[in-house]
């Protein structure tokens, strides 16, 4: 996450606090939140309510430093059904959420008048299989109540489909509940309308649905195609109902982009296959050149001398200054005293590869330890130990701090190339010291 994105999230925190109940997305945030933090947020909701819990959640979120947490937060919002909030944060455009809040308050004021002043037959003729898609869950419930309580519409028997985030400020629909709602709409001829949030945008196959109505809801061109595809019946139609000029312009842009996409696909399908493959190859080459030219920031090399201790018994093995890199990927120790620190046993699967002849395994010399440190090889004319960093603990000489590394590439110390001139005569004429009784 960039510094600007972090500032934006802090600036728009009031929008998030009003909308988000963090307890519904905590299960998707486990890679970034400790168990005690999750419990603290859940306790805050139980004692103070969802807004206080959201405040604590945002505070913890904005303090995270791990790479990828912001993308994880957006993915969690989408998976939990908060697609409106997801889109608002991704684009840093909260106008849509402001409008939805206005509609929710307006519906609360006008709902009593709907029953007496609006004739349903004027605005909603008899429908067979209709999917109403609306983002705000309070409006969904209001629409359902209005249809059920109006004698001229109650025969439609509307169903509801929402995400697992929340519906009535308490809990969202479970997967079984979602399945039941879909099954009822598919099989029950009396149920003619399904009112849904954006959870219905994709992945739903409703063969008899012949009308999709989007109320003040528009996404990108992909969402538009996916949502329109919910109507699977022959001759099905999709309508967007809105009085918002921005929404209208966005949908017009989607229609234009869809037309461009279809024309591009048609042209590509007419290409010669060899020409198409060559074009793709040229694009890949160009993309690689761009990536390579950007380069990667190299980490600062830690030139301080450190100790390597046996990962099991913590016996001193060598200093990082004693380590040399052989052909860029193997690490050996040139310190003469190191040969007293290990013992060897013939390798069960000796093997030759390149300039290397794998001959034996090396182990910590302490008889009560015998921890596996790596292998013993013949490299050209030299007998050298090749150690693996995961077998050792790296200790800072000055502070005593100890660190474990799984791979050499993770250990950013000064790597000195192997030089034959540094090798003592023992390395050229070494008799392997056996390990008695080692299995």
Automatic annotation (TrEMBL):
Q: Do the record's keywords include Metal-binding?
A: yes
Q: Where is the RLR CTR domain?
A: 292-425
Q: Which Pfam families does the entry link to?
A: CARD_2, Helicase_C, RIG-I_C-RD
Give the molecular function GO annotations: zinc ion binding
Query: Which example biological process does GO assign this protein?
Result: defense response to virus
Q: What PROSITE patterns does UniProt report for this protein, alphabetically?
A: HELICASE_CTER (PS51194), RLR_CTR (PS51789)
SMART domains the UniProt entry points to: HELICc
Q: Which GO terms describe its cellular component?
A: cytoplasm
Keyword annotations from UniProtKB, A to Z? Antiviral defense, Immunity, Innate immunity, Isopeptide bond, Metal-binding, Phosphoprotein, Repeat, Ubl conjugation, Zinc
This protein's superkingdom?
A: Eukaryota
Q: Where is the Helicase C-terminal domain?
A: 99-276
The answer on whether this UniProt entry bears the keyword Transcription regulation reads no
Q: Where does Zn(2+) bind?
A: 310, 313, 364, 369
What is the protein name given in its UniProt record? RNA sensor RIG-I
